[in-house]
Inverse folding.
């Protein structure tokens, strides 16, 4: 998975529909999430599309699997995951993920229906991180 800085660098050079295509590409590049993990317990509430996030940890390092049934939303969740992937749980729990995503100005690029679930995605990721760091 590409780093958030690498994605931002590419994103800044793009406009309009090209940014949509990049988000769709990011979603396609997500690591495969097995269907058995797509349960009510991993479902992110408040998203216009179905979004699932499943945390794993190897020692202190967090690793997330994620998926969505909508291409753009899957790209958005890929951005969220890129901000926190393979970092220590205590770092993710304390991180300002919203600020890390701010340069993408998603609220200006996408409809409110597509962005309304982002705070819930971030909250779920950080809840998992806090529990694992616990």
């Amino acid at each position: 998975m590409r780093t958030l800085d690498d994605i931002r660098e590419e994103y800044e050079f793009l406009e309009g529909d090209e940014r949509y295509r990049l988000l769709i590409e990011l979603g396609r590049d997500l690591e495969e999430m097995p269907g058995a993990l797509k349960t009510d317990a991993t479902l992110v509430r408040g998203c216009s599309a179905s979004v699932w996030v499943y945390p794993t940890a190897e020692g202190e390092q967090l690793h997330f699997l994620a998926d969505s049934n909508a291409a753009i939303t899957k790209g958005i969740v890929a951005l969220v995951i890129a901000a926190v992937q393979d970092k220590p749980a205590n770092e993710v729990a304390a991180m300002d993920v919203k600020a890390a995503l701010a340069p993408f100005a998603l609220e200006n690029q996408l409809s409110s229906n597509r962005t309304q679930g982002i705070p819930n995605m971030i909250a779920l990721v950080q809840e998992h991180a806090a529990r694992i760091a616990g």
